[in-house]
Amino acid sequence: MTSVEIREFVKDNGNVLTNQQMAIACGEPRTRISSAISKCKLSGDIKLFGWLKSEQPTKANVKKGLKRIFDKVDAIGKNQARESMAMGVATSGVGGMILSLPSYTCAIEKLILDYTRSSTNNLFTFFGVERKELAHKEMLATADRLGIEFEGTSKKDILYTIERAKENDLAHVLLDLCGQVHKHEQDIALTINNDIIKVGGLFCITLVRRLACGNGTKFREKIESIIPYDNNLFDSQGNRVTQIDQVILNFIKIESKGKFELVEEPFRYCDPTINDEGKKVVGSKMILIMLKRVK
User: Are 209 and 288 in contact (CB under 8 A)?
Assistant: First the structure.
């Protein structure tokens, strides 16, 4: 890594990781980390490094800091999903407000602006939802740094905003939920049934390809009682469509009632993540579904 890259890394992670952990994560000697810290202190970029005085070094803190690193470096599938959503929005021909879950990165919002920056019209405004206090503050700071203007934000659950949106209020809804479909049944159903997205607008959903026992099993059984599992269903690449994927897609088909159609075949990916010991391991299997309102 260059000296500038190390300094940027230290600025982003100095309050989450120890010097040794940053050295391991960067693959650089501790001397280079220490040098970067000294330069940041002199320039006033950061006033506090290492563990925050108010909290102890816990596995959760380490995991949070390390996950940030791999989110930037190894999230190949996630980045491809973001590219697909951003390009779909930019070429949709539908402008207006976009409801999204930006987190602290505002990555999808930045991509959309990058794709449409050459336009002479202000095509999109954003409404960002982030429940966690710290992540919400970081989201606003990131947006300010990147020149992203939020028309509004909320610290409440995404369902709170969906329930209060009016018909045709939104150009697009981008829900990077990353949870199991049965836990977001209301979020998805109300977005579709309340007609809050304009005709031609996109509804993009990212979900984990898993259904836990209990409520997940009941949800699967409910969907399969309407549209049974098809063991002979294959995608365009010749891969068998799994039972979980069929449950997700059939749930959306049932709720859509012909108002939404798939823009393209669902995108499946699996990026590495960090376990509690700070080691990189295989992450969750994910699926991106991009829908377009047609009526």
Answer: no
Q: Are strands 172-179 and 202-208 parallel, antiparallel or unpaired?
A: parallel
Element (H, E) at 23: helix 19-26
Note the CATH number of domain 76-293. Answer: 3.40.50.150
Angle among Cα 79, 192, 91 to the nearest 5 degrees reads 45
| Bridge partners, 96 (sequence order) | 124
Asked if residue 189 has pLDDT above 90, the reply is: yes
Q: Tens digits of per-residue pLDDT, 256-292? A: 999 999 999 999 999 887 665 667 778 889 999 999 9
- Candidates 136, 135, 90; CA nearest to 111 is 90
What residue has token string 């010097």? 19
Q: Where are the domains of the chain?
A: 3-73, 76-293
Give dist(CA 115, CA 8) in Å, integer.
25
Q: Are 259 and 295 in contact (CB under 8 A)?
A: yes
pTM exceeds cut of 0.85:
no
Sequence letter at residue 264 = E
In the three-class reduction of DSSP (H, G, I as helix; E, B as strand; rest coil), residue 20 is classed as helix
User: pLDDT digit string (tens) for 84-121?
Assistant: 999 999 999 999 999 999 988 899 999 999 888 766 56
